[in-house]
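Progress against Task 2.4 (sequence-to-structure conversion) is shown through the following example record, which the project officer requested during the mid-term review.
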Amino acid sequence: MPNIHQENLFDPEGILLGAVFQEPNLIHEIKLEPFHFSQKRNQLLFQTFRELQREDRPIDLVLVIEKLAGKEMLSTSYILDITTRCPSPDNFEHYQSIILTRYKLRRFTQGAYRFLNEQTMEAADDFYKLYTEMADIGNVEGKTKRDLLAEVYDEMIEDQGDISGIDTGFSLLNGMLNGLQHGDLIIIAARPSVGKTALSLNLAKNCCKTGGVVDFFSLEMPGKQLMKRMLSDISYVDGAKWKNSYSYFSDNDYDRGVEAIGMLDQWNLQIHDEPRQTIADIRSAIQKTKREHPNEGHLVIIDYLQLITQSKTFERQDLAVGHMTRELKQMARQYEVPIVLLSQLSRGVEQRADKRPVMSDLRDSGSIEQDADVIILLSRDDHEPVSPNQNELINVNIAKHRNGPVGVIKLAFEKNYSRFRDYQV
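Structure tokens generated for the chain above:
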């Protein structure tokens, strides 16, 4: 056991622990956990404080020593010394901040040591994730109740526009969602060939047309194919012609195609179609865009959930999906962007007489339902036309809306142009 008289009596861990002995009610304000402390005996002492807090018992010298009886790591003389360490409990937040900073630096050192020794992409992903996690620890939101009330009042007296979120381009959808809200995780799910990728491209187009910036993560379709779909929509040239534009384009098609290419070139749209993208890759790209375009409306689209590459191994697929949706929801809040996440539906929906999907049809649905702010289920009624040369009516079922109404609207889908539009009855 080290000689307590030779220790640094101004160590922030000892001072903070001493502050709790002086003002036991501080334990309710302190945000630290035992693992934030560097010394094992300080971890054990703070853990004892937390145990007494949970038991609703006072934190005093007698009860602490009683709980720690038989713990060789903590002598009574050390506990007595701790009680005298703190000159004043008034500055406990300062000492808490120092302890958190030192904890972060220890974690960074451990992560860097692992990466330098292993030099693998998994270790690099883990280190980047560690960096983003550590950056948020200890950060306190600076807005007070009065700040929030002032923002609400400003909305009452200032014209905020027709919608508060990013314009979807569809009047009925805007009416239900008030636009795509910053910080929301929005799930769009459908069976294959119903139009979820086309709808997401339409959302990207409408965001860019109003001066916004879009990060589109395509985990299934190559970027060039997505570009052709979007160009077909913009130019109103049949998508089939873009497969061999040199042979199939008329002069008019060519003129419209060139105009569409020029328009799309001006938009702030980034397509990330690299294979095997991880959550860390997605986070890195979003952070880069946020840094380069801090003031523009920013929309993130991921096509699709089940193709995101896992950097860790999970026992079950639903646990892996749960990990990803939690990470993406935290990302949406951290960067204050709407994240539109496409997802598959299970095959069970096709085996029912009523083929309209419900939330339980989401593949690995439990965590998706829990983490999503909005869930949109797309379906085509059996009696609707399905010919590639005819418009289809798509049911857009807003099955979950954490902060607003739910219900079904219809959009017209011009499949050969990859274009959705408002349905006029």
